[in-house]
Every structure is written in C-alpha cells, then in structure tokens.
Design goal:
With about 170 residues, the chain is of the alpha+beta class. It has a single domain, classed as NADH Oxidase (3-Layer(aba) Sandwich), CATH 3.40.109. It contains 5 helices and 5 strands. Strands 1, 2, 3, 4 and 5 form a 5-stranded antiparallel β-sheet that branches. α2 crosses α4. Bound molecules: flavin mononucleotide.
Length: about 170
C-alpha cells in the first residue's frame, strides 16, 4: 500500500493545474466508503474550487493559511447530531472519511493536506459561516488538494518503529 506509506502533507501546489470535478467526486466516493458507527453515515462533502472562497477559508486560523496555496479543497461536513444514532462517535466517522480522501488523493498523484477544524468552536463557526453550512451541520476538516509543485514530496519517511508495538498486553 504505497499510497499509505508515501502520503505526505503537501502545502505547495501548481496553481496552473486543476483537479477535475469528476475526480473530486471520486474522492468523495472513497471518503464515503469509510466505516461509520452503526453505519450511521453521518457525513456530507462540500467541494470548493472558487479561489475567492478558498482565500476566505485561508484566513480562518493559522493552520489554514496554507489554503491560499491551493485551488481546490474538500470539506467533510458532519450531519446534524440530532439526526444520527451515535453522535458521540461522529468525529471518528468524519476522521475515517478524511483519511480516505488523503490516501485516495495520493494514489491519483494529487497532493493533500488535512487542516483541522473540529472540535475548535471558533474555526467551526467561521467555516460554517463562509460555506453557508447550517441546520445543525458542521464543518469537520478542510482538505487542501491539488497537483504538488514538487512530486518528490511523496516518499515514505518511515514513522514506524517496533517500540510502538506490544504483544497481547500494553
Ligand atoms: C487533526 C489534524 C489537523 C491538522 N491540521 C493542520 C493544519 O491546520 N494545517 C496544516 O498545515 N497541517 C495540518 N495537519 C497536518 C499535520 O501537520 C501533518 O499530518 C503532520 O505534520 C505530519 O506530516 P505528514 O502528514 O506529511 O506525515 C493536520 C493533521 C491532522 C491529523
């Protein structure tokens, strides 16, 4: 699974190239194939390729400033907690979906970077406002996407070591 090992957070993109809408929909399909608690499927997705909106989102927090370097993003959105059966596990549902997008993007040769929004209320409110997310729904993360300026960034940095693992008990 090279796309898992080689995935890196990419923060510089070639703005002369644009990921097609069809490919972005495919990334959303991969996202939605992620598991969810009780199969509650508590997620939706907003595709953003309007640079003006992206630049607004880049001002939400220090961590989102990198968005000004991309021309496409996907925002996984949580459905209203009142409408799902296990709201206490919704963050896990959304994390799994977010990670699927990062891995699938790497497979396609797209760069990606997860910008954290949830559970920081100030960030959620700002993104909800900019993207007109309402009725109890909320922005979970922002995933920057695009063609990386430097393709060499895809490489296995080997974060694993055997001391992270114990056998049978912790
Ligand atoms: C929950 C979460 C929030 C993150 N938020 C940001 C962010 O706001 N801005 C950013 O540039 N990177 C963000 N990242 C990416 C991390 O900085 C990155 O994964 C980490 O430095 C390891 O680098 P790698 O992804 O290349 O392995 C976030 C990652 C996670 C999982």
């Amino acid at each position: 699974m090279d796309e898992i090992l080689n995935r890196r957070s990419i923060r510089k993109y070639d703005l002369s190239k644009q990921i097609s809408y069809e490919n972005l929909l495919t990334l959303c399909k991969y996202a939605e194939s992620a598991p969810s608690a009780k199969n509650q499927r508590s997620r939706e997705y907003i595709i953003v390729d309007d640079k003006k909106i992206i630049d607004e989102l880049s001002l939400v927090a220090k961590g989102t400033m990198i968005l000004s370097e991309c021309n496409t993003l996907i925002v996984p959105v949580g459905k209203s907690p009142n409408t799902i059966s296990r709201p206490e596990m919704q963050a896990e549902d959304l994390s799994a979906a977010t990670e699927n997008i990062l891995i699938a993007a790497t497979k396609f040769g797209f760069g990606s970077c997860w910008c954290g929004i949830y559970p920081i209320e100030d960030r959620i409110n700002k993104v909800n406002e900019i993207l007109n997310i309402k009725d109890g729904k909320f922005a979970f993360s922002i995933i920057a996407l695009g063609y990386p300026l430097n393709k060499d960034e895809f490489k296995d940095k080997n974060k694993f070591s055997l001391d992270l693992v114990t056998h049978n008990r912790g």
